[in-house]
Structures are given as structure tokens and as C-alpha cells.
Amino acid sequence: MSWEDFYRRRDTIAAVLHAAERAPDGPLPFTEVGAGQVFRDERELLLALHYHWMQLMTGRLRAELGRPDDGDASGEGGDDLSGDPSDGVSRAWRRAADEHPTLRAVLDANLERYPDVGTAALEREQRVLAVAAGLAEPDESPAEAARVGAAFLALTRHGAAHGAARSERSKGQVLRMLARSA
């Protein structure tokens, strides 16, 4: 991919998200923004949108969890280095969703419309969340890590939708029990 292609894809994604602000839970505004000039079809665009989301979310994860190898030699880069990482992962996911509500809504609406693309993309996200939260191991079966990540994501979304009624600590305890029961 050339730099020109990169910039065209980036600009098209921005145009899609801008157009989707009117109805983020609707179909992708593929023809409306001329995305066919850059992407083969809606599925390829959806994959690019999910890739964009994963970049934003994993950036939030790194900032929230503050891994020592991220440039802070003292190891004091984040709040959760000695605590429960699931709390930091939940905060990171919610921050990314709060900062990019149109992108998240477009993905939520369209990943289900295109299950051939959406299922694999969502499972990747769920695996990343499960491993980052310490609920799955990197070498664990992808299906099992995705299952645990799906439960984690459901709890994270439920807490965001209900004002985080449960404390972050109690949610972490529920997740640890869930992971042990697998």
C-alpha cells in the first residue's frame, strides 16, 4: 500500500464516520461517501473500521495499564500494575467507546449485519480484552479466550450502561470466578 492509498483509506474512514453521525446504528454509508473507490465492498470497509477501533482501544489499554516496557523504566506508568488489571481494561474500553461513540455504534450495528466478517473481528477484540485483563493466557485456545472475553465485554458494557453500579473490584471478582469455572 502506498502512502497515497493509506491517506485515501484514512480519509474515507473519516468520511464514513462523519456521515454515520446522523444514524450510527444504521447501515454503512458506503455509496454515500464514495467508499467504493477505496474499498472493495462493505465488508472490507467494516474490517478497516474494526482495525481502526482496535488501534484506538489498544492505545487506551497501553495508557491505562502502563506497562513498564512502554518507556517508564521505573515501572510506575499506570495504576493497575500491582492491582486487578480487569479494572484498567474496563476503564480503557469504556474510555475508547466514550471518545469514539460513532465508531463504536457503527461497529455494533454492522458487525452483526456481516457475520462472516464481524464474528472473527469481534472474537479478536474479545481475546485481546481477556488476555489484557488477565482472564486468559496468550496461548489459550482462541475459542476459550474469546468466550471469556465476551463475558468480560458484556460486564464492561453493562457497567457502562448502568453507571457502573457495581464496584470495579466486585466485577473483577465475578470475572475471576467466571474464568475459573471455564
Automatic annotation (TrEMBL):
Domain of life from the UniProt record: Bacteria
Region span, Disordered: 67-95, 160-182
Biased composition (Acidic residues): 71-82
Entry protein name: Uncharacterized protein
Annotated organism of origin: Haloechinothrix aidingensis
Source lineage: Bacteria, Bacillati, Actinomycetota, Actinomycetes, Pseudonocardiales
